[in-house]
Amino acid sequence: MSRLVELRHLPAPAKLNLFLHVTGRRPDGYHLLETVFQLIDLHDSIDLRIREDGAILRPRGAPGVRPEADLVVRAARLLQKTTGCAQGCEIHVSKSIPMGAGLGGGSSDAATVLLGLNRLWELGLSRRELATLGLQLGADVPVFVHGYNAFAAGVGEKLTALHLPERWYVVLRPDCAVPTAAAFAAPELRRDYPALPASWWDSMPAEQLWEACLAATNALQDPVSQRYPPVAAALASLQAVGRNLKLEPEHVKMSGSGSCVFIALETAEAARKAARLVRESAQEADRVWCVRSLARHPLL
After folding, report:
1. pTM of the shown model
2. Residue spans per domain, the chain
């Protein structure tokens, strides 16, 4: 059997945070969180090709990001160093997920590189081992490696897979990017949410769990919207659409640390109508996506 030398069009899906609570802060400054990750079908695409000289190259990547600073390059080098692999690779990233948007694009790209190179280099690491490596790159990387919608605690590494119902989301990207560190640095950010009991996600039916997630808050939303007027304007735009569709206010929310905001809907028909209304109110139609939830990562 001939050996694989390349993998093409590997998907790196985006995520939404259906809620986000900050429950504390570690001595090293990292925030402790509770959140639910929902994978969606907006994705980047990654091509990988083996190099026998050991070099890690990224001919195409995120605009404005130097290869040395790119999480995909860091992921490849970490995997190479950890396993002692003598092979290298070329990484080509085609971006669709906006940057600085709270959709996890960079983390998802890194996870897809770890998964792809584990196969291409024939390393045989388990997903648990890859997720442990991924945590060194960023708190959101492990959920993409594990590949399921999940309740996350700690800094994002303590994952419990969840079954969530199929739903639709209209995502609007404000005309700004929000640095994650800046969002968490807000002095008024509430950092003392009580930890949720395990029964919160263990015992509820999927539809009820989805509604409970939306009813919970994103602790970062108010601090970010106060500092970034485009985020506040995007939220107001989606809230107007929600009122038009007679949705509850909590169906409109910011994802993660922003800047993207979303409106959650139960059917494709409602999502198409919402997307049309959002596009009519937004200045740029290319900043609006109508997306479907994913039950699991496409690479599973």
Report:
1. 0.94
2. 6-160, 164-292
